[in-house]
Write a structure and sequence with these properties.
This protein has a domain of 76 residues. It is built from two helices and no strands. α1 packs antiparallel against α2.
Length: 125
């Protein structure tokens, strides 16, 4: 008995199903690749912004450190220091200088705190 040859439409249908499946696999692969590249770009952008922030904070720290170590103090740096009524004149000058130097360190300590936070962020990324 001779076998019947396959119908041409059945062959086209099978090829169409195969092509559709292959196209789906290709699109999934492209989507996964695109998502991985997007994630890598986001990480790179985050690292760049963090490095930029760390650089700016380091420069700010350097400037504030130089300002805090400046040898002279000026009268406007201690004008808001609380004074005591029976404070001797020699102690007033010493306390004013001490207060002025402590006030200079406040922005420096804030910058150090920001640097530490940025360092923790760098460890997370």
């Amino acid at each position: 008995m001779p076998s019947n040859p396959p119908d041409i439409w059945s062959i086209f249908s099978a090829l169409g199903t195969f092509a559709s499946g292959l196209g789906t696999v290709l699109l999934v692969w492209l989507a996964v690749r695109g998502l991985n590249q997007w994630r890598a770009q986001l990480q790179g952008t985050s690292k760049y912004k963090l490095a930029q922030r760390l650089g700016l904070l380091a420069l700010q720290f350097k400037d504030q450190f130089s300002q805090a170590r400046y040898a002279r103090t000026f009268s406007n740096e201690s004008f808001d220091r609380p004074t005591y009524p029976d404070e001797p004149e020699g102690f007033v000058q010493i306390n004013n200088e001490h207060y002025a130097r402590r006030q200079r360190l406040k922005p420096l300590s804030e910058t150090i705190r920001k640097l530490i936070e940025a360092g923790w962020e760098a460890e997370i990324i």
